[in-house]
Structure formats: structure tokens, C-alpha cells
Amino acid sequence: MKYIIVGLGSFGASLAEKLTGQGNEVIGIDIKMNRVDALKEKITHTICLDATDESTVSGLPLKDTDMVIVAIGENQGTNVMVTALFKNLKVKKLISRAVNPLHENVLSAIGVDEIVHPEQESAERLAKKLCMRGVVDSFELNDYFSIVEVKLPKHYENKTVEEVQFRERYNLLVLTTLKNARVDSEIGKTKTIIDVQSVATPQLLLEHGDILVLYGANKDIRKFINS
């Protein structure tokens, strides 16, 4: 995967290092040369530029980039301007950082694909979510075991937990499932919220759009996702 990360503060820099360490190509961008210099030996590419300058940004390899992450946090106005610029340039997937509810509402109105909150979500968790296909969120219990939210694979729709045989096939435990619900936001747009279901039973029917909450070893989770 190829990523562009704009804003190399503590969160952006940490995310860039995590994604690079997982074998991805990462272009890190910041207007401050000291931040760029600090990462030039740690990630794939670093560039010092003003990301609010459309003529400069349009020269980046956007068509070959899978995801753009705007990690700017110290200046909300700059964050919004940069996010809107990348949205107008029609990048494949756009993620932006929000620091408060009003900021989040503005980003939602711009139409970003996803909003992250570094105060609640570590760079390590986000890197795992971005790199493991289908992972919605994750919580590491230690270096070997995690609890993850994973989108239900299409070929398991309309089957029960027992029929899928999560324990027998993958050595994983289904804790519960989550369903998406649509509600109206404060700015008049419809948004999706997560509705947590009860504790999973062997007879639980898995349906289209469900998110599985799984517990297991990281290697077994990867095996399930890659299957």
C-alpha cells in the first residue's frame, strides 16, 4: 500500500513509522523542515512543503496513492484547508484528524472517508486497522493477542456462528457483533453509528453488514482476514 501523511507531529510521525515498518510505502509531508529531517531515515520519503498550496500538492503522485491521511492537529484551519484540497483533487481514500466535535462536523461536511481522533486512538491501532483488510478497530492485549472488529466476509453471510466454526477453523472466539444504524447528525446530514448486539451464541445468525468482535492470537486473526 502507498500512503501520504500530511503533518508529522507526534501522531503523524508515529503513524508514518508504523506503516513503513509494516512494509508500506509512506510519503511524509510537513511544512517544518526539522520534522522532515527527523524522519528522513525512518520512513520511505519525506517532503517539506506547504500542503495548502494546490499547485505544489497537485504535483504529488496522487493517482498512485491508496490513501491520504491529514494528521495536522495544532491548526484546525490548516487541517480543514488541506483536507478540502485533497478532497477536490479526488484522492482514492481520504482520512483526516479531528480535535473536537465542531471540527468533526466540518470534516463530515467536506465528505472525508473517515475521521480519526488521536486522543482516543493510538497510531499503532490505526496502523493495524489500515493494513489488515477488513479491520474496523483493534485493541492489543499484549504483543500476541488482540480484540478486533472485523467486517463480516461476504461468504459467511446468512450463516450461524456455529456453522462458520470460528474456533475449529481459526482458533478465534466471537464475542459479539455490531450493526450499523443510520441517524441524522447535528448539521442535517445522515451519519452511521454502531449498535452493539448481545453476547454472541452459537446460533447467532450473521447478516450482511455485520461487524464481528473477535478475540484471539494476532497470527490467527491475520489467517482469518487473509482467508
Description:
It is a single chain. The protein has 227 residues and is an alpha/beta fold. The protein has two domains: 2-126, Rossmann fold; 132-226, Alpha-Beta Plaits (2-Layer Sandwich). The protein is 32% helix and 32% strand. It has nine helices and 13 strands. α1 (10-21) crosses α6 (123-131) and α4 (76-88) runs parallel beside α5. The longest helix is centred in the middle third of the chain and has 13 residues, at 76-88. 30% of the residues are buried. The mean pLDDT is 86. It comes from Leeuwenhoekiella blandensis (strain CECT 7118 / CCUG 51940 / KCTC 22103 / MED217) (Flavobacterium sp. (strain MED217)).
Number of strands: 13
CATH class of the largest domain: Alpha Beta
Radius of gyration, Cα only, in angstroms? 19 Å
How would you describe the shape?
globular
As an assembly, this protein is: single chain
Largest sheet: 6 strands, parallel
Segments where pLDDT lies below 50 for 5+ residues?
A: none
- How is the CATH topology of the largest domain named? Rossmann fold
Q: What's the arrangement of strands in the largest beta sheet?
A: 3-2-1-4-5-6
N-to-C span: 19 Å
Instruction: Give the integer mean of the pLDDT values.
Output: 86
* Strand coverage percent: 25-35%
Domain RCK N-terminal: 1-116
Pfam family, one: TrkA_N
InterPro entries: NAD(P)-bd_dom_sf (IPR036291), RCK_C_sf (IPR036721), RCK_N (IPR003148), Trk_Ktr_HKT_K-transport (IPR050721)
Protein name: K+ uptake transporter, KtrA subunit
